[in-house]
């Protein structure tokens, strides 16, 4: 990218404090990431980014946005004065997007956004120059950041759109103006903020606010909260599902490392377990077809996809046991699906599960944790480790339904004790699944088991 201060000023409707024109070649809001020639964007969060401008200058920033008192602005680099640096950052992203004009694909949903984004990019990259959200940069800061880091000449831009509250996806959709949008699933994530599954569906449907009128919307066939909300839309609607919907898959074989399935008599495979990952793959397929990709290209894109870490990832324990690590985030839908998937997979030894609190579930939290009992039984699972406060609901439910199943509960402070207990029990031929909210830090348990 090449932005002169005059262009930035126009794009963000700001005022340039310095006289000589400067060109910037990159944009960063973290002063530590600034390299020579970058524009610094001081954002206001828990810290005020303005306080780090000297660090940005030290690292080579040639210009900065500025919304504090102009009298305190630095004098050695170009300064573009704006009312709100985040809004200016977003406006600059809009400007760059209009200038580059790639087709934009937007992915939202309660679970599976990152995986679906990775799969969609892998498919579209078989034919087009693509760029996608890096990691999980899916909010009002991450989205403009992604756009501004898109290489020139990108033909298809795949954006993950996340939310905690109603209204947030609208902002992202209006900024990115997608040509194609997809909703992976309506779950219970963030029900604390939103109130009900209906409200969650409304919030996900905000992805259509900026969607091109002649664009495509991809939704799960068996989610009536979505199918009943799309009737009045002008866009093409495509539905997908496991043996349901317009794009309907049959699962042929599921192993630890791969799932084989067919759609319209063509076979496909993904290097991941779980029927939910087939659903994610169907979205990538629908989008690939919309952009004219053939069966072979879609096959290649799905078979060789590289997904972002710790989302249903197989690892080896130090003693050789198989670890299914899914510790990046958790909510009831995802935890239930992972347990169902794990219970079906072959293991030479026993199946163990380590389940930690799922955060932000609001008033229903205890009951939602308890409901996981429907995804556990004393035939498929031999030992259950529960970690945290909210998960006590499940402890009670398990004791009630499977009185002889070995269930161990540990409080938040007792993580090391839990690790020691698991290590003492885990045998080389066992398989162990770990799932919980990121905030519970199960990644430490995974790492300790890998040692
Ligand atoms: P976040 O909100 O943290 O960005 P995300 O929506 O990007 O999450 P992923 O990171 O792709 O979701 O997947 C997180 C976990 O959700 C997976 O490891 C898996 O357990 C579960 N998951 C993935 N896809 C689906 C799906 N289609 N339906 C339900 N659960 C899913
Ligand atoms: Mg994500």
Automatic annotation (TrEMBL):
Pathway: Cell wall biogenesis; peptidoglycan biosynthesis. GO terms for molecular function: ATP binding; UDP-N-acetylmuramoyl-tripeptide-D-alanyl-D-alanine ligase activity; UDP-N-acetylmuramoylalanyl-D-glutamyl-2,6-diaminopimelate-D-alanyl-D-alanine ligase activity. One of its GO terms (cellular component) is cytoplasm. Gene3D superfamilies: Mur ligase, C-terminal domain (3.90.190.20), Mur-like, catalytic domain (3.40.1190.10), MurE/MurF, N-terminal domain (3.40.1390.10). It holds the Pfam family Mur_ligase. Keywords: ATP-binding, Cell cycle, Cell division, Cell shape, Cell wall biogenesis/degradation, Cytoplasm, Ligase, Nucleotide-binding, Peptidoglycan synthesis. Involved in cell wall formation. Catalyzes the final step in the synthesis of UDP-N-acetylmuramoyl-pentapeptide, the precursor of murein. It comes from Enterococcus devriesei. It catalyses: UDP-N-acetyl-alpha-D-muramoyl-L-alanyl-gamma-D-glutamyl-L-lysine + D-alanyl-D-alanine + ATP = UDP-N-acetyl-alpha-D-muramoyl-L-alanyl-gamma-D-glutamyl-L-lysyl-D-alanyl-D-alanine + ADP + phosphate + H(+); D-alanyl-D-alanine + UDP-N-acetyl-alpha-D-muramoyl-L-alanyl-gamma-D-glutamyl-meso-2,6-diaminopimelate + ATP = UDP-N-acetyl-alpha-D-muramoyl-L-alanyl-gamma-D-glutamyl-meso-2,6-diaminopimeloyl-D-alanyl-D-alanine + ADP + phosphate + H(+). ATP binds at residues 109-115. This is UDP-N-acetylmuramoyl-tripeptide--D-alanyl-D-alanine ligase. Belongs to the MurCDEF family. MurF subfamily. Residues 24-94 form the Mur ligase N-terminal catalytic domain. The lineage of its organism: Bacteria, Bacillati, Bacillota, Bacilli, Lactobacillales. It is found in: Cytoplasm. Residues 311-437 form the Mur ligase C-terminal domain. GO terms for biological process: cell division; cell wall organization; peptidoglycan biosynthetic process; regulation of cell shape. SUPFAM superfamilies: MurD-like peptide ligases, catalytic domain, MurD-like peptide ligases, peptide-binding domain, MurE/MurF N-terminal domain. Its EC number is 6.3.2.10. Residues 107-287 form the Mur ligase central domain.
């Amino acid at each position: 990218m090449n932005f002169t201060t005059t262009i930035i000023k126009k794009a963000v409707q700001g005022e340039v404090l310095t006289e000589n024109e400067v060109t910037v070649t990159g944009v960063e809001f973290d002063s530590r990431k600034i390299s020579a020639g970058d524009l610094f964007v001081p954002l206001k969060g828990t810290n005020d980014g303005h306080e780090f401008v000297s660090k940005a200058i030290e690292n080579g920033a040639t210009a900065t946005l500025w919304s504090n008192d102009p009298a305190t602005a630095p004098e050695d680099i170009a300064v573009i004065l704006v009312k709100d640096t985040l809004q200016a950052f977003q406006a600059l992203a809009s400007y760059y997007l209009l200038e580059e004009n790639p087709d934009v694909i937007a992915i939202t949903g309660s679970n599976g956004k990152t995986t679906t984004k990775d799969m969609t990019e892998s498919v579209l990259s078989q034919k087009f120059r693509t760029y996608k959200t890096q990691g999980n940069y899916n909010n009002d800061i991450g989205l403009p950041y992604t756009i501004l880091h898109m290489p020139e000449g990108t033909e298809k831009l795949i954006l993950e759109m996340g939310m905690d509250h109603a209204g947030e996806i609208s902002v992202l959709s209006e900024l990115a103006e997608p040509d194609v949008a997809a909703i992976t699933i309506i779950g219970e994530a963030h029900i604390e903020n939103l109130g009900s599954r209906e409200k969650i569906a409304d919030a996900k449907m905000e992805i259509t606010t900026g969607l091109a009128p002649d664009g495509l919307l991809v939704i799960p066939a068996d989610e009536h909260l979505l199918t009943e909300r799309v009737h009045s839309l002008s866009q093409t609607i495509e539905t997908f599902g496991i043996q349901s919907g317009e794009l309907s898959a049959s699962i042929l074989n599921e192993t630890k490392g791969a799932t084989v399935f067919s759609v319209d008599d063509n076979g496909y495979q993904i290097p991941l377990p779980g029927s939910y990952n087939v659903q994610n793959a169907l979205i990538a397929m629908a989008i690939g077809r919309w952009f004219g990709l053939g069966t072979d290209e879609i096959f290649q894109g799905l078979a060789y996809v590289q997904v972002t870490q710790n989302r249903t990832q197989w690892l080896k324990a130090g003693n050789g046991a198989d670890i299914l690590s899914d510790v990046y985030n958790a909510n009831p839908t995802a935890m239930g699906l992972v347990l169902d998937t794990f219970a079906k997979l072959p293991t030479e030894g026993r199946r163990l599960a380590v389940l930690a609190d799922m955060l932000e579930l609001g008033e229903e939290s205890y009951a939602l944790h308890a409901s996981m009992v429907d995804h556990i039984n004393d035939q498929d699972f031999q030992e259950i480790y529960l970690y945290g406060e909210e998960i006590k609901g499940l402890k009670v439910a398990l004791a009630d339904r499977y009185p002889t199943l070995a269930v161990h509960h540990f409080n938040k402070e007792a993580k090391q004790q839990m690790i020691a207990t698991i290590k003492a029990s885990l045998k080389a031929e066992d398989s162990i699944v770990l799932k919980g909210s990121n905030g519970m830090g199960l990644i430490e348990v995974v790492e300790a088991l890998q040692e």
